[in-house]
Amino acid sequence: MTWAPFTWVGGVLHAEGVSLEQLAEDVGTPVYVYSTEMIRRQAARLRETLASVPHRIHYACKANGSLAVLSLLRSVGVRVDVVSGGELYRARQAGFTPDEIIFGGVGKSAEELGDALDAGVSLISVESLEEVELISRLAAARNVVARIGIRVNPEVSVESFHEYIKTGEKGDKFGVPYDQAEKVGLRAHALPHVRLCAIGMHIGSQLSQLAPYGHGLERLEALIASLRAGGVDTLTHVDIGGGLYVPYNGEAPADLSAYADTVLPVAKRLGLELIVEPGRFLVAEAGLLLGRVLYRKHAGGRDILVTDTGMTELLRPSHYDAYHRIASVRDGRPQGRFDVVGPICESGDFLALDREMDDASPGDLIAVFTAGAYGNAMASNYNARQRPAEVLVDGSRWAVVTRRESYAELVQREVSTPDWRASA
Ligand code: LLP
């Protein structure tokens, strides 16, 4: 049996050694609960997978940017990948030093790029020729040399569960189109305030097949060969992005040894240090969302559980039709078939539809699993909902690492009486 972060002990679901019934009493619901041990284990598994080549793991913190999660990952030797000035700020607040940070993203503003240069991040991953030129000007004005990588769109076909999370196909907005990449690379190489250090790709998220990594890498390899032939002698890294598959409903997990077989020989052949940017893989299974059933309705032949949590805390079911397993915190319940919905005034506000699951009544606690990635990170204040608390568990210890948002915080940036200014 593999180790699991969430198990039933004496009929009650526990996160490591902590009863979720007790936790809900103490902290209230909805609350995200994360297992430190699971995060450590995933980081260690990935590190072992890549051990035979020089590598860096840069956690894509868009998956879960909570300071405690960031600082936990940093404590086990993981670096970070940020995609906005806000994420750069978060990463710095969590203790990451600039040399541990990659700054990526399809639409970085001049201000964000300036911040990244001022901080001295280890790499800026660029996605267009215009961005290279802009960085060159910003770096020249600061009299620094910007270390950049080019994110290439290798234009391979990928399998993922939803169109919205595929990124490496022809015509996608991400990356430099493959047929323009050599030109962009040579131009970057010619600019005195830019150093071309890396070539990379990110082809999508929750990838169920490994072949696209292989196809993408073949294309990167060919590109690197022609850049080298064109005189580029500054490359130190090849970046293969994130995308590792995570099981949400008992599927087979990502085959890490097949991943290694696909990726590591290329890194060795190229003689470049490998960069990976996992998000979901490190944190998804370590987290669950704990909520409480408020009401139970019967309508149009359906049994509906109205809970105190929904799309404002976990958008994935309504946005991507994503599946998240749901169970009662008390085990041994008979099975039923339910729509599990939230309190938001939207028909699209659901966690599961027509789901065979534990029967539940008002007052019962439910756990929504595999919610550690792209859960709280995508939470919103719609309907003036307070964003939820987050709790980190470590063995039998637990701590609130994000307190529930207060009503006052909901309005603190606003004024009810405008401070009018005259137009010039
Ligand atoms: N690197 C880049 C450049 C990315 O855009 C992403 C994710 C990652 C790394 C990390 O990918 P991962 O290892 O987590 O698959 N909100 C969606 C997922 C969007 C992923 C966006 N980019 C979801 O909830 O499924």
What does this structure look like?
The N and C termini lie far apart (70 Å). This protein has 424 residues and is α/β, with parallel strands linked by helices. The chain has helices at 20-27, 36-50, 67-75, 85-93, 110-119, 129-142, 178-190, 211-229, 256-270, 280-283, 316-320, 407-411; strands spanning 6-9, 12-15, 18-19, 31-35, 55-60, 79-82, 101-103, 123-126, 146-153, 176-177, 194-200, 237-239, 273-276, 287-299, 302-307, 326-328, 335-341, 350-358, 365-368, 389-394, 397-402. The mean pLDDT is 97. The protein is globular and about 70 Å long. 30% of the residues lie in helices and 26% in strands. Strands 4, 14, 15, 16, 17, 18, 19, 20 and 21 form a nine-stranded mixed beta sheet that branches. It contains twelve helices and 21 strands. Strand 12, helix 9 (256-270) and strand 13 form a beta-alpha-beta unit. It folds into two domains: 6-34 and 284-410, Lyase, Ornithine Decarboxylase, Chain A, domain 1, CATH 2.40.37; 97-278, TIM Barrel (Alpha-Beta Barrel). The structure holds ligand LLP. Ligand LLP is lined by residues 60, 63, 81, 104, 165, 202, 205-206, 241-244, 277-281, 316, 320, 374.
Topology:
Elements: E1 6-9, E2 12-15, E3 18-19, H1 20-27, E4 31-35, H2 36-50, E5 55-60, H3 67-75, E6 79-82, H4 85-93, E7 101-103, H5 110-119, E8 123-126, H6 129-142, E9 146-153, E10 176-177, H7 178-190, E11 194-200, H8 211-229, E12 237-239, H9 256-270, E13 273-276, H10 280-283, E14 287-299, E15 302-307, H11 316-320, E16 326-328, E17 335-341, E18 350-358, E19 365-368, E20 389-394, E21 397-402, H12 407-411
Parallel strand pairs: 4-20, 5-6, 5-13, 6-7, 7-8, 8-9, 9-10, 9-11, 11-12, 12-13, 15-17
Antiparallel strand pairs: 1-2, 2-3, 4-14, 14-15, 14-19, 16-19, 17-18, 20-21
Helix pairs in contact: 2-9, 5-6, 7-8, 8-9
The structure holds ligand LLP.
Ligand LLP is lined by residues 60, 63, 81, 104, 165, 202, 205-206, 241-244, 277-281, 316, 320, 374.
